[in-house]
Amino acid sequence: MAKMEIKIGGFGGQGVILSGYIIGRAASIYDNKYATMIQAFGPEARGSSTSAQLIVSDEPVAYPYITAPNLMVLMSQEAYTKFSGELVSGGTLITDEELVTPHNLRNDIKHYSIPAARFAEELGKRMVSNIVMMGFTTAITKIIGEKAMGEAVKVSVPKGTEKLNHLAFVKGLEYGRKLVE
Amino acid sequence: MQDESGVLTGAHFIDGDHACSEGAIAAGCRFVAGYPITPSTEVVERIAERFPFVGGVFIQMEDEIASSIAIQGAVWAGKKAMTVTSGPGFSLMMEHIGYAAMTETPCVFVNVQRAGPSTGLPTMPAQGDMMQARWGSHGDYGIIALCPNSPQECFDFTIKAFNLAEQFRVPVMLMMDECVGHMIERVVIPPPNEIKVFKRRYYRGKKKDFLPFKPEKDLVPPMIKAGDGYRFHVTGLTHDEKGYPSMTVGTQAKLVTRLSDKLKVNEDKIIEYREDGVESAELIVITYGITSRTAIPAIEQARKEGMKIGHLRLITAWPFPAKRIHELASKVKAFVVPELNLGQMVYEVERHAGSGVKVEPVSHAGGTVHDPKEIYTAIHRLMKG
Question: Which of B5, B13, B38, B104 could form a disulfide linkage to B169, CB 3.0–4.6 angstroms apart?
Fold first, then answer.
């Protein structure tokens, strides 16, 4: 991996920004890589469409915005409709199987999906679906080491929820591993 | 447990605003007054959260005018202090920037620039306050302005800003922008003993000989603080070495000339810039702040195509490295100056480059950062055209 431009999309409250933050933190603090995350500051509110964008690279990042995303993690239908066209040819698209119906799915990209929200509900809290998604993304893309991601999840989630989030991360990770094996 | 040093040693993944707060704490700042404004709000949010644990005081003031003078009271009471704002608030602070310059009150003004004029684009970046930082208050005076391009530099340069303020007793501006302020990257905070902090220049002589505005050799007078038993008077009126109003042509000339000269005679200790490939360059791109990053893909592209392109990045926009620009002007055929404004620092480049060299602005009204292609196009046109 030389350079990954990543976009995470969903609706406010799903933990979209936290997901981006965890990837960036894992890469730059626990995995000897460089990460630059840009926060889109708009009138986003809970329930409306939101996105996080970041660059993960083996080298320092000069230009901070993403221009040609090669990885997208989309957790809502609206995000799919709005963003999936921007993904570069050959890029990787990851969606929540039950929240996103991939209409007119492009045939020049790789697509993986996971019922992350359902898994999260089964674990007891729908709120951790973004962490299931992060585990899945780690297994599929291998952009960042599993250990680094696990560590970043642990230190980034609210205190007292570490165990639940760890389970969510492992759930996504294992589901992803099976899929790529 | 209160940790007096307050330094958050370690590696963090934080944004430029938060890094600025940590820089202030590490520099020993213990008083911040502000009127929160996007995109600088996160700086004071973090200060408000962290200060109770390090013995600091944060006050959310009624406006920016009050904020910018409250910090100066704190300084004369012995604290290191700063205020934090963005364009509209910066405009309101101009009067007190002049007051800080006139009274030689060391303090830091953080301006996380957003697109203006007026309310403009509150959540989007610009570099439109560069001339205002230098000339915004009335009368003749000098300031120092630093331009960070990453969260790490927001930490480092906030410390630098405090150090320069103390060393030269001037207001120092940290000219961030929305992109750098809200950008999240790794920030490494060293242990407290590895952080250089310039202590206030306190007067050490005999009490009876004390003159509050009598300069030392470098034209900077040492300070005292309220409560130490010295008689002193601080005024924005033209004053003599005793600090008392002396409204004469002679006192005005002596004081105002020294305020300007103290930066000039010390400019080698203040001016900072970074150069990359300028010695063999035929064209040099001059940047500062976020533009120093957006120009890199353009410079790399041009170099790949065999063009000899240098990069000079201003760390201090003010004082401006006039001598260096003049020197380089004789060696290159053009300067390209991309800015997130319609042309501000480019005037300074033109002024010092002289007429023998082309100076080309790459202007942008703000709201986002440059597309590197715009900078490349200017380079290409001047090199091949």
Answer: B104
